[in-house]
Amino acid sequence: MKLGKVKYCKKCVIPSSSAIPVEFNDEGICSGCLTSQQIDTVDWVRREQQLKRLLDQYRSKDGTNYDCIIPVSSGKDSYFQIHTIKNIYGMNPLLVTYNANNWMPEGTTNLVNMRETFGCDHIFFTPSISLLKRLNRLCYRMMGDMNWHAHCGIQTYPYIVAVQHNVSLLIDGEHGFMDLGGMHSYSDYVELTQRFRLEHVQRGYDWYDMIDDERDKIQKQEMISYMFPSDAAIKRVGVRGIYLGNYIKWSGNNNAAIAKTYGWQEADAEFERTYRKISNLDDMHENGIHDYMKYIKFGYGRATDHVCKDIREGRLSREQGIEIVKQRDSIKPKDLYRWLEYVDMSEEEFDQIADSFRDPSVWERDTQGKWVKDNIWD
Asked: CA 353 to CA 351: how far, in whole Å?
């Protein structure tokens, strides 16, 4: 046995095998924890003044166009973004949603309520369902991620709309890799980039990698909504994407509390793989079988992610977090069977493909052939 390669942050529970870039200092504290400590030192009043000046630059001067685009899923963060941009700063946003076709009932309710409550124009884009099923299968076989289409669509379609409608400003929520793993500093004011979209969000794959598969045949013209606008088109409109989390103190828990004042609803029950009921209601598989594949690949799951955030916010102790991870991270969720029926795949094939993506620095087979790994509680 050669286990012992994975180490864990001594403040939260994030592993060195993390799917997002993470570093550890000499005291064994991860870059995510170190970056989160900056939140208490940032001058948020000054940041909000900077945001106001930035937004003023993009307001439509004669009221003939939208001021900005907000990519939304109808989640708690979407509500917080609209609340901030429209109701606090008085902007006229165009809302854009990429529909991955896997909504939970609570997510659908929140979507309808979002439209009625905020009174914004809303573009709701649904790719061909036939294409979505083929992309689910193909990307699962190709990279062990059935939701690649959603990652790409969410990061691409709002830019297509921005170019089509000549809207220069996109406003996203938080930079996920910075928020969880400390990929950047709050001093960087990092913005959305095509490089981050391709190399990290899309795992290095773009629309053209999906063409001409022998089993799930996809043609070029079916991938139009995944083609990022040309550099010339982006430059002509002057499209710029910012993260609201660089200007407003960001907390998913606080965002949920504000969203609830607008009628937003959390999940009726806890998910199998995480205790939080406020995340990913727009896609039943995000907290389920999609997240299970992260456990198969890297040895941890969304319970670990959520525990890390709540430890940093002082809502959980590390000991409480470890117990949650122990109970949740390894669960093979029941939504798998909905997904298998959706894409017409057997559980045996699913498991064979899943095993091919196990990180050898995390997993080994024991003498009985069972997959084993180091755990934070060992």
From this structure: 5
- What is the residue-level pLDDT of the chain in tens, covering all 378 positions? 456 689 999 999 999 999 999 999 999 999 999 999 999 999 999 999 999 999 999 999 999 999 999 999 999 999 999 999 999 999 999 999 999 999 999 999 999 999 999 999 999 999 999 999 999 999 999 999 999 999 999 999 999 999 999 999 999 999 999 999 999 999 999 999 999 999 999 999 999 999 989 999 999 999 999 999 999 999 999 999 999 999 999 999 999 999 999 999 999 998 999 999 999 999 999 999 999 999 999 999 999 999 999 999 999 999 999 999 999 999 999 999 999 999 999 999 999 999 999 999 999 999 999 999 999 998
273: closest CA among 243, 258, 294, 251? 294
For 202-306, strand residue ranges (E) read: 240-243
18: Cβ contacts below 8 Å, ≥ 6 apart:
181, 298, 300
- Say how far apart CA 81 and CA 65 lie, in whole Å: 19
Contact predicate 168/237, CB 8 Å: yes
Distance CA 130, CA 357 (A): 26
- All residues at 6 or more sequence positions from 12 whose CB lies less than 8 Å from its CB, including other chains: 30, 32, 33, 307, 308, 311, 312, 318, 321
With the C-alpha atoms ordered 127, 157, 222, 143, is the resulting torsion angle positive or negative? negative
Tell me the whole-structure pTM to 2 decimals. Answer: 0.95
Q: Where are the beta strands (DSSP E) in 221-278?
A: 240-243
> Residue 321 is which amino acid?
G
The answer to whether the beta carbons of residues 171 and 81 sit under 8 Å apart is yes
The residues, any chain, with a CB within 8 Å of residue 88's CB and separated by 6 or more, are none
Considering only CA atoms, which of 258, 269, 252 is closest in space to residue 309?
252
Quick one: how far is CA 285 from the chain centroid?
Answer: 13
Cβ neighbourhood burial of 273 (10 Å; 0-12, 13-18, 19+): buried
DSSP run (H or E) holding 163: helix 148-165
The backbone torsions φ and ψ at residue 212, rounded to the nearest 5 degrees and listed phi first, read 70, 25
The three-class DSSP label of residue 241 is strand
